Model the fold of this input.
Amino acid sequence: MTENGCEHRERVLTMDTMNPNIKRVEYAVRGPIVQRAAQIERELKMGVNKPFTEVIKANIGDCHAMGQKPITFFRQVLALCSYPDLLEDSKFPEDAKSRARRILQACGGGSLGAYSTSQGIEIIRQDVARYIERRDGGIPCDPDNIYLSIGASDAIVTMLKLLVSGEGMSRTGVMISIPQYPLYSAALAELGAVQISYYLEEDNCWSLEINELRRALQEAKKHCSPRALCIINPGNPTGQVQSRQCIEDVIRFAATENLFLMSDEVYQDNVYADGCKFHSFKKVLFEMGPEYSEKVELASFHSTSKCYMGECGFRGGYMEVVNLDPEVKVQLTKLVSVRLCPPVPGQALLDVVVNPPQPDEPSYDTFIKERTETLATLAEKANMTQEILNQVPGIKCNPVQGAMYSFPRIHLPPKAILEAKEKGQSPDMFYCMKLLEETGICLVPGSGFGQRDGTYHFRMTILPSKEKLKIVLAKIKEFHQHFTDQYS
Amino acid sequence: MSENGALPHRGRVLTVDTMNPNVKKVDYAVRGPIVQRALQIEKELKEGVKKPFEEVIKANIGDAHAMGQRPITFFRQVMALCSYPQLLDDNKFPEDAKNRARRILQSCGGNSIGAYTTSQGIDCVRHDVAKYIQRRDGGIPSDPDNIYLTTGASDGIVTILKLLTTGEGRTRTGVMISIPQYPLYSASIAELGAVQVNYYLNEEKCWSLDISELQRSLQAAREHCNPRVLCIINPGNPTGQVQSRQCIEDVIRFAAKENLFLMADEVYQDNVYAEGCEFHSFKKVLFEMGPEYSRKIELVSFHSTSKCYMGECGFRGGYMEVINMDQEVKAQLSKLVSVRLCPPVPGQALMDLVVNCPQPGEPSYQTFMKERTAVLSALAEKAKLTEEILNTVPGISCNPVQGAMYSFPRITLPQRAINEAKAKGQTPDMFYCMKLLEDTGICLVPGSGFGQRDGTYHFRMTILPPTDKLKIMLHKLKEFHQTFTQQFA
Done:
C-alpha cells in the first residue's frame, strides 16, 4: 500500500465475488439472440449490407411495438390524470373525465405524482374486486385481498420470495411447467429455490396431466420440500387454454399434496380457439365447494401488458390472494411497503381496464370496436400462424388456442445438431441464430423455455401485422427448407 | 385422506413458520405501525368519531404532492402529450413540450409509451441523463452505457446490493450504512441476509461523517463478516446534512484504501438550503481527485424523480450511474434487470424531462423557472422555520436542516416515560410518537425506525406541509412536548 492509499488492486465486485445465484439466472426472452438482433439493427442503420432490410422482433410479447394501437379511452383518461387542466377541454368525453376525476380524488394532493398506499389505491382495488366478481359469476372478492403490482412479474416474484425457505432437503421446491415463461426459472435461480419441472403433453395440445404432476412431485420430494405449484393459463409459450376439468384436477392435486397454488392468468382475454374458454382458478376453486375454497391457498396474477390493452410499458398489474394466512398477509404487506408503491400511472391504467366504458356511456361504441378488432386480429393471426407453419415439412405446430405465441416443434438434421454442439450452442439456438443472420427474424429458441430432451422448438409471437406476419412465416418456411437441405 | 379426496383439517402451506425467515426480519418504519394507526384514525374521523383534532397530518413520508406541492406544469404537459399523442395537434400546448414528447415517442416501440423499452432504459433518455450529469459535474464525461434507468432509486439500490451479497458466516458481505439511515437499506440488507455494518454520524457536529468512526466500524465488522460496500446518503435522510467536499474526498480515500465499493444515494441533490452548503456529487469529486482514484474506485450513484423540486414519487422514475464496474459483472447486471423487462415508461419519460428541462429561449422556460424556484425556496423557508421553532422547545434540539426534506430532532424524554414505554414493549420514541398521534393527529416516524445512538431518542418529521400548516403543526408539537414532559415528570 503506497502512502497516498491507492495502488493497483483487484476490483471489489468481480465474477468471483458477486452473488452466485445471479450468475445462474437466465432470461432467454431478452437473452443473447436479442442482443445480436439489436446489434444487427445498429449495423443496418450504419448502412451495412444484409440479405434483409429490417429486423423483425418476434421474440417478445410487445403488442404496441409491433403496431397494435392503444385503446383510445384509456389514453384519454391517462392524459387527463397527467395534466388535469385538460378536464376543462371539451374535446374529452365525459366518461373519461369522470374516471380521471375519481382516480385523482383518490390520490394524495389530487396528483398521480404522490405515493399511493403500498397495496395500491383503495378505490382501484375495489374496482378490481368488482371486476373479478363480475368475471367469476358473482363469487365475492375482498378488495383487501388485492395487491396492485409493478406488472404481474413483480407480484409473482414477491410471492415466490415469501415461499422460499429451508436448506438442503427442506429447501422450498416450486413446480412449474416445461415449457415455461422464464421469469419463473430466473426468479427461482435468484432466490436459490428448487425448480421442479412438470412436462406439458405436446402430443395432446400441451395439456397438463395429473400423473405427470404426481411423477414430478414424487421425484422432487427426495431432494427438496415442494411447496408451490405454478401454472400459466392461457399458457406461455405454449398457448394452450386449459379445460375446466384440468383446472379442477389441479386444484384437487394441490389440496391433496399441500401445495400453494400460483395461477398466472395474464392472457385471460386472449382465447381464440373454438371450444376453448378461460376459467379462472378462483372461480373453479369456489365452485368446488368449501372443502377446497376454504383450504387451498391461491394467488392469481393479472397484468395490463397483454389481452387487448398491450400496455406493457405502464407496468400495471395485480394479484388476488385467497386463503393467505393472516400473519403471512401482514408480512406480505410489510414487504411491499419497502418499495413504497407500484407506479401510479400503471394503477390508473388498471383501473380503467377493470372499469371500462359501459353500454350507456359515450365512449362505449369506440371502445368495443377497438377491443373487438384487436382480439379478432389476434385470433386470425393465431390461426394463420398455425396453418402456415404446419405446411412446412419438419415443422409441427400445435393449435395456438390462446396467449400470443406459437411454439412449434422443429425437426433438425443430425448434422446441424452436431455442428451446434461443437459450437457449444443448443441446437435450436444454432437454428435461430442462423435464421436471424439470414432473414432478420428474431425468435427465441425453445431451450430458453424448456422442452423434453431431444426435442427442439422456437417461440414466435403472433404480433406482427397480418401482412408482415405472412411474410415472416413464408421466410421461415423457406429458411427451414434451406436449412434442412444444407445439413442433410 | 377419505375416498372422495376431501381433506382432513390441515395447516396452511404458507405460515410464519414456513415462510422466508429473512422477510420476517424486514422492517420499514416509514410505513410501519405508526402509519397504520394513523390510517385507522383517518377512517375513524371519516366515520364521525370525535377526536381532539380534525385531520391527520402525515408528516411521516417524503411525499411532496400529497402535502400540496404542485407538479411542474411543463412536465405534466409532456406526459399528457406522450399518453395521448392526438394532443400534439392541440394548440394549447407549447412547442417545446411537443418537441420533447415527439422525441420520446419516436424512441418508443410503435411510438407508444405502452411498449416495453430495452431493459436498461430508453436509449435517448440515457443519453440525456449522461449529458445532464456532464453539465452538473463541470464537463466530466458520462457514458450513457453506464446509465441504468430504474423504478425509483430504491430499485437500483436493491439491485446493486443483490449483486454484492455473497459468502457465508465470516465471509458474508457486510454493508456499511450510516446511523441514522433511510430504512430501505436496513430492510434490503435484512431481506438479502447480508450483514449491516453501522457507522454513526456525529450529531454534535451537525451529523457529520467522521473517518475515524468509519474506521472503527470497519475494524469491528471485519471480525464477523466481509465488509464490501459503503453506502452514503447525501444530502442525508433522515438527517438532512449536506456533506462538505472535504468529507466526500475523505470517504473516497477511505473506500480506496479499504477496498470498498461505494454507493452514493443522491436523490436530494437539488434540496440544499443552508448557506455555505453545496451539493458535490461523488462522481465529480472522484474524477477531480485524479486517475489513481477515478480509474479504480467502483462507484454507483443514484438519483430519482421523487424528490428535489419535482416530487413525482408516484411515477417511480430513477437512474443509477455505474463507474468502474467490472465488465463481466456489468453483463450480469444487464441480464438481471432484463428479467423484469423494463422500468415504467412514464417514469422514464419524466426522468428525460427532469434532465432535459426547458432552456432559456424556449417558450416554457419562464414558467418552469418560476415554479422550480418557488418550490425550492418554499422548502428552504420551511427548513429554517422548522429548525428555529423546534429549537425554542425545552427538551428538543434540532440540528440545522441543511438539505433533503426532513428534520430529525433529538428529544429528551423523562425517565418515567421511558420506563412506561419499556413496560409496554415499545421503544420510548415510538411511545412518544404514538401519544402525539393520538393527541394531535400528527404522524411522525420515531427515530428508532432509522437508528440512533443508544439512549438517545428522535423523530423524523417532513418539512413538506404548506407553511401555514407547518407552523400550526410545530406549535402543536411544542405544546405536546411540554405537556408530555410535565405528565411524566
User: Anything to note?
Assistant: The radius of gyration of chain A is 24 Å. Residues 22 and 190 of chain A are 5 Å apart (CA to CA). The longest strand of chain A covers residues 225-232. Residues 364-389 of chain A form the longest helix (26 residues).
